[in-house]
Amino acid sequence: MKRIAIFASGTGSNALKIIEHFKAHSSIEVALVVSNKDTAGVLEIAKAHQIPTLLLEKNIFRKSTQLLNDFKVYQIDFIALAGFLWLIPAYLVKAFPNKIVNIHPALLPRYGGKGMYGHYVHEAVFAAKEQQSGMTIHYVNEQYDEGNIIFQASCTLTPNDNPTIIAQKVLQLEHKHYAKVIENLLITPKK
Ligand code: GAR
Fold it and tell me: Rounded to whole angstroms, how far apart are CA atoms 57 and 60?
């Protein structure tokens, strides 16, 4: 079994899609949900699916490598960020080379970087009167939203689409693709 840890800071609708996708999978399972916020909806989702959870404390996460020990215990092979807002520290990137992916609610390299998350992204896309937006799945490195792109999907925007509508269109794409892209990465043998 390949064992995934999902990192999320908020509602967790992408986490839920991933959990559901791998519920009865023959070779991949969601083994752990990690959050930095004790009120995050994703923790309730994890509990409802009997998935263990881990709450991060900022300084320990950034400065110690204790998490690597936890991941050994849970036998984590792969990490999927799903609305996780903290930067991933270098020790974790090094320990999981090309095994950490993130989903971003825009067509990177545009509308990425520190502070560009959730509704801030959709407001910026709206303000720029973009005719399309979309989502990006990419590998994670030590910078926000800068790792190599794995997959993108786009949606057309009309002048009537406010940031809320843009968010809905993008979230629909995320729900459609993220779990499948993770599955492909985990079942396709590396050359
Ligand atoms: C998603 O749209 C995800 O792309 C975004 O947060 C949302 C989380 O929604 N991530 C970022 O903005 C990261 N820069 P969810 O909690 O319902 O899955």
Answer: 6
Q: If you measure from the C-alpha of residue 83 to the centroid of ligand 1, how many angstroms do you get, rounded to a whole number? A: 4
Closest CA to 67 of 12, 5, 146: 5
Task: For residue range 171-180, list pLDDT tens digits in order.
Answer: 999 999 999 9
Does residue 41's CB lie within 6 angstroms of at least one atom of ligand 1? no
Nearest CA to ligand 1 atom 3: 83
pTM recorded for the entire structure: 0.97
> CA 17 to CA 12: how far, in whole Å?
9
- Domain containing residue 157: 2-187
- 43-60 pLDDT, tens digit per residue, is 999 999 999 999 999 999
104 assigned to active site: yes
Number of domains comprising the chain? 1
Instruction: Residue 90: give its domain's CATH number.
Output: 3.40.50.170
